[in-house]
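Hey, weird one. I pasted the Resolvase HTH domain-containing protein sequence into the form twice and got a warning about non-standard characters only the second time. First submission, copied straight from the form history:
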Amino acid sequence: MSYAIIIMSIGVLLIIVSFFVKDSTKKMESEVEELSITLYQETSAIKRRLKIVEEELLLEGSKITVPKKQKTKPVIHEIIKSQVLALHKQGFSLPEISKRSSLSVEEVKYVIGGGK
């Protein structure tokens, strides 16, 4: 019987002590709540800024005209150029040279024509 009284008194004592000990979960919950509020505010601010930027781009996009494409000279490695010229000297047709050199027919004509 004395063991039961000791265990019961320890239980009552622990219950009383638990009322006076600070609850760390409340602090953690408040920090998480503050963090979520901050995150929501920052997300809203970013969305507003993004909307403003999109509107500016739409306004500027209507003013911008796309320049016409200019013919640019293709950049072809010297080894491929020499291979194309060698195949041309051997009498291969332009489509055959194109297949063997992995160039388009226009690029083959460009190389054979000396870059003109």
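That's the output from the first submission. The warning seems to come from a hidden character in my clipboard, not from the data itself. Residues 4 and 10 are 10 Å apart (CA to CA).
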